[in-house]
Amino acid sequence: MPTDTCSTCGRDLDLHDRHVRYTLPDPVVDSAEQEAASGTWLSHGTARDSVMMYVPAVGAFVRALLPIRLAEGHTLTYGVWLGVDPRELRSIIDVWWKPEYRDLRLRGRLANAIQPWGLLGSPVDTVVRDPDETPYCDHSDDPDLDHVLRSEWPHDVIPDTS
């Protein structure tokens, strides 16, 4: 059975409009005990399923979606982690599953390196576009991250995972 291929890059279309979800923030990956550290809090049973986490001596993190616009209307969406001020985590938790969530605005730092750009630690602001979805990275004071968010990219920017 032949697969559909992209007329722009020649890759299988199933590589387009993908969602890539990071399991852990990079600072947690780099820590000795990762999410198993004593005192760690996860919003759900596992880090992969969680939308928020706190890891002592590492930080507080919240999920966000980072959409990369590709040519011809395709989108590669990264499920990333944002490092947030641990003092703000309680207020985020308080609205996450309530109607007020639709007005949630977060300011944090990108806690995953995004290939091919890197961008780890870049400041980013999020908005809730749909109350049934994770907040979206909307803009950044970092010119490189803001350029990534605002530009359309060629399909060859998609990391080859084959």
From TrEMBL:
Q: Which domain of life is it from?
A: Bacteria
Q: Which InterPro entries match?
A: DUF2199
Q: Tell me the protein's name.
A: DUF2199 domain-containing protein
